[in-house]
Amino acid sequence: MEVKSMNTTAIIIGLLFLISIVAAENPYRFFELHVTYGDISPLGVAQQGILINGMFPGPDIISVTNENLIINVFNHLDEPFLISWSGIRNRRNSFQDGVYGTTCPIPPGMNYTYALQVKDQIGSFYYFPSLGFHKSAGGFGGIRISSNPSVPLPFPTPADDYTVLIGDWYKTNHNDLRAQLDNGGTLSFPDGILINGLSSGATLNIEPGKTYRLRISNVGLQNSLNFRIQNHMMMLVEVEGTHTIQTPLSSLDVHVGQSYSVLVTADQPAKDYYVVVSTRFTSNILTTTGVLHYTNSVEPVSGPIPNGPKLLRWSFDQARAIKTDLAASGPRQSPQGSYHYGMINITRTIRLANSVGLIEGKQRYAVNSASFYPADTPLKLADYFKIEGVYNPGSISDQPTHGEIFPVTSVMQTDYKAFVEVVFENSENTVQTWHLDGHSSFVVGMELYKWSPDSRKLYNLNDAIPRCTVQVFPRSWTAVYIPLDNVGMWNMRSELWERQYLGQQFYMRVYTTSTSLNDECLIPNNALLCGKAIDRI
Ligand SMILES: *[C@@H]1O[C@H](CO)[C@@H](O)[C@H](O)[C@H]1NC(C)=O
Ligand SMILES: *[C@@H]1O[C@H](CO)[C@@H](O)[C@H](O)[C@H]1NC(C)=O
């Protein structure tokens, strides 16, 4: 795809606006991310990985609430590339979201400078490459947003923070995996599981008596994972930007795309202990171990590797026990829906049913029977430049149709400031995870079997956790409340990468007639242009 930068006049106009918007300043942080191929061999055989600044996984992006992050991404690959920011809300600014529907790909040999603001956000997230099947080759890294130093944490400051990126892994090159799907195939069972890019020996160093924060994200492609540490309890403290009621856990399920923080205290005899990650809900369980290493350790890891949970019921119980710590201070979502989400009237109910089927004889996935195909122009740019014929805002039903799967560039129109109930209905036999960009969703309920209006009686309308990535168990439903407080074009996708790639996603156009810059930013002055938007300014 041809891509151009906006012209100088646009840049000057853009800068003038930029200066006026950001006058009352939050600090800036500058990052450069250089994206290259490199040899990696996480499973003992060399394969082509995607490195960020020479690293696999990439470096952490570390910031503080409200800061402006200026991130210049240089694409040294021979393919178009984009990075997206899982869980970063990009308030008023879906242009910076870095997914197909919002941002033109960075052509090979070029760079693009993202300008994000982590407005009113704290917590643990990650970045990842959003196009093609790049995510299967790496290109991901942690994102950490600390509270403003004047805001006390609801727990003693940990001795250190560790990013723990876990995920299933394939030895197959990302282009081959992609070709496999393009040709109508599916992904096989993964070849292994990685902890911070390693299939064995990943090490977390701890000093006796001290407490550490582990920021755990599942950056894999397909599998829910269970995380545990031999002989150590973990205290759950944060889920995707919200402090939780502190709950001691012996193990933690992390579904694809999700992030959690736990505290671990070095309160055991000084030796090495297994850190264990294993697949959930698979008949053949894949397991990988790392090491929790006491700095004064006198003994290598030993003893049986602790087993993970087996029952689905266990996972339901753990998920439903995760509650918001309503007493913790810290930034919140917009006042609408922040403290008393349970008392706000629902303006619309959207039910989303995933399904699988064939289109022209090839494997596809769908939401309410709509299987997403990208158009030639990012949807946000089509919107911004009022280019007709790229998508229709009503191209996906907001209720299951149970009809045959059909191909479409699916966009669902919603109103800015609407307060919607979304019910994810999974009649399939696998765990799903869903992610909505730009927003946080209160997880009010999840149960086995079919949802009905009566199911609302089971909702937690008091202290449900708001999060960006939510699981839906096999033959079950999950209900969320979403304050649509962010104008823009936002991707709602399956985090299961085969499903996402083959159509289980759509865009939610959060729309207002207002053109106020308080509601939505202008297109960035350095925006790349492509498709039908190529000659626009
Ligand atoms: C590319 O990087 C240069 C600095 O090296 C920067 O001035 C320029 O704005 C970047 N390009 C884009 C499109 O962001
Ligand atoms: C919610 O709806 C009810 C019934 O329609 C109405 O009486 C109430 O005032 C509404 N509450 C809010 C906060 O708008």
From TrEMBL:
For this protein, the record's InterPro entries field holds: Cu-oxidase-like_N (IPR011707), Cu-oxidase_2nd (IPR001117), Cu-oxidase_C (IPR011706), Cu-oxidase_fam (IPR045087), Cupredoxin (IPR008972)
Identify the keywords attached in UniProt to this record, alphabetized: Glycoprotein, Signal
Domain Plastocyanin-like stretches? 35-148, 160-296, 376-513
Give the Pfam families listed for this entry: Cu-oxidase, Cu-oxidase_2, Cu-oxidase_3
Lineage, top-rank taxon, reads Eukaryota
Q: From the UniProt annotation, give the residues forming the signal peptide.
A: 1-24
> What name appears for this protein in its UniProt entry?
L-ascorbate oxidase-like protein
